[in-house]
Amino acid sequence: MQLQPGDMQFVNNHSQLHERSGFLYWPDPSQRRHLMRLWLSIERNRLLPEFFKERYGSVDVGKRGGIITKRAKLHAPIDLAK
Fold it and tell me: Which domain holds residue 72?
């Protein structure tokens, strides 16, 4: 799949086996990618095995947090030059 500017992709990480290749971090801001991730937990979502509690803190629908790493930025600037 080749995503183009303005494209959106929704993937259920618990039902799809997926990966992505590496990307180039271009010095020119106009050539950089702008990837935003959104963790959704919808009503009547798929039940998860208990061992996922270690990763998400909870397996309850609506209470599954994303994985926050030390390098995670909890904001999403729209200005690509930043």
Answer: 1-76
Looking at the whole model, is its pTM more than 0.70?
no
Write down the pLDDT at residue 79: 66
For the chain, 82 residues long, the average pLDDT of each consecutive 10-residue run is 82 72 81 74 80 82 71 66 54
CA angle 66-31-74, nearest 5°? 20
Into how many domains does the chain fold? 1
The answer to whether 46 and 14 are in contact (CB under 8 A) is yes
For residues 2 and 77, what is the distance between their CA atoms, to the nearest angstrom? 23
The enclosing H or E element of 55 equals helix 53-56
81 in any annotated domain: no
How far is residue 14's CA from residue 45's CA, in Å, rounded to a whole number?
10
3-state secondary structure of 24: coil
